[in-house]
């Protein structure tokens, strides 16, 4: 009786387990009866949250992919921009060099034009087609280039001893003072040895009359070679307004 009852209980348990395994609803009923329903609900909510997180992760990954593509595009565009900037810098450097060469050419042309103008002025004066006052006025800018001043005064003095011309006479010469240095200046269309000697003697007269030893200078259109040699010997500064030294009649 007892053994028969124990065997029947085991058989009943096996039947219950098999029914639970085969019947899903029965399992849930038993779990709910045993207090598992709350756990199942929480697990379901966790699964739902996990699903939403996975969806958000998917969207973030998609956005990341789009951003990476855009970033790659920007990098490519930036590289192209850098290349364009490099080409522009090279073109700008080339343009600067060309402008510098052009400026040098313009300066050379301007200098050549100045020399030509000075030569024409000297020639016109030499052959009587330009007055002495006109020639002197045309040479004012040369004086300014050489001495830094354009305005000169006229020194007039009587030479009773005839130191300059060998007889008593009135001596006149242009004069300027710069930085306390007295400069006696002659402007001639053609400079000869006699002009050098004359200015040198005028300098001696000036020093005798004023007690100041002057600086002697001649601005000339054309300068004889012999005049240059004598000027070096006597300490007279000669400034040709043109480089060429032409022997004029």
Protein described:
With 249 residues, the chain is an alpha/beta fold. It folds into two domains: 36-130; 132-240, Trna Endonuclease, Chain: A, domain 1 (3-Layer(aba) Sandwich), CATH 3.40.1350.10. The chain has seven helices and five strands; from the N terminus they run αααααβββαβαβ. The protein has helices at residues 2-22, 24-33, 37-126, 132-138, 140-147, 193-210, 225-234; strands at residues 153-159, 169-178, 181-191, 215-223, 237-240. It has a five-stranded mixed beta sheet with strand order 1-2-3-4-5, sandwiched between helices. The termini are far apart.
Taken in chain order, the helices and strands follow as HHHHHEEEHEHE
Overall mean pLDDT stands at 79
CATH topology of the largest domain: Trna Endonuclease, Chain: A, domain 1
CATH architecture of the largest domain: 3-Layer(aba) Sandwich
Task: Give structural attributes.
7 helices, 5-stranded mixed β-sheet, alpha/beta, Trna Endonuclease, Chain: A, domain 1, 249 residues
């Amino acid at each position: 009786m007892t053994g028969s009852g124990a065997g029947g209980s085991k058989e009943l348990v096996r039947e219950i387990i098999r029914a639970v395994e085969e019947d899903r609803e029965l399992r849930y009923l038993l779990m709910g009866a045993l207090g598992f329903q709350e756990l199942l609900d929480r697990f379901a909510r966790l699964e739902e949250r996990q699903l939403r997180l996975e969806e958000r992760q998917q969207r973030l990954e998609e956005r990341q992919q789009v951003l990476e593509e855009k970033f790659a595009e920007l990098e490519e565009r930036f590289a192209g921009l850098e290349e364009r900037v490099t080409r522009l810098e090279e073109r700008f450097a080339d343009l600067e060099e060309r402008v510098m060469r052009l400026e040098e050419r313009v300066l050379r042309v301007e200098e050549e034009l100045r020399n030509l103008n000075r030569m024409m002025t000297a020639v016109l004066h030499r052959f009587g087609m330009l007055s002495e006052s006109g020639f002197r006025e045309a040479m004012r800018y040369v004086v300014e280039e050489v001495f830094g001043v354009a305005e000169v005064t006229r020194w007039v003095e009587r030479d009773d001893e005839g130191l300059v011309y060998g007889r008593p006479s009135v001596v006149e010469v242009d004069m300027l003072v710069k930085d306390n240095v007295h400069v006696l200046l002659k402007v001639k269309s053609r400079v000869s040895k006699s002009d050098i000697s004359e200015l040198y003697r005028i300098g001696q007269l000036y020093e005798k009359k004023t007690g100041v030893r002057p600086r002697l200078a001649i601005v000339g259109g054309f300068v004889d070679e012999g005049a240059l040699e004598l000027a070096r010997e006597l300490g007279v500064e000669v400034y040709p307004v043109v480089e060429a030294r032409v022997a004029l009649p």
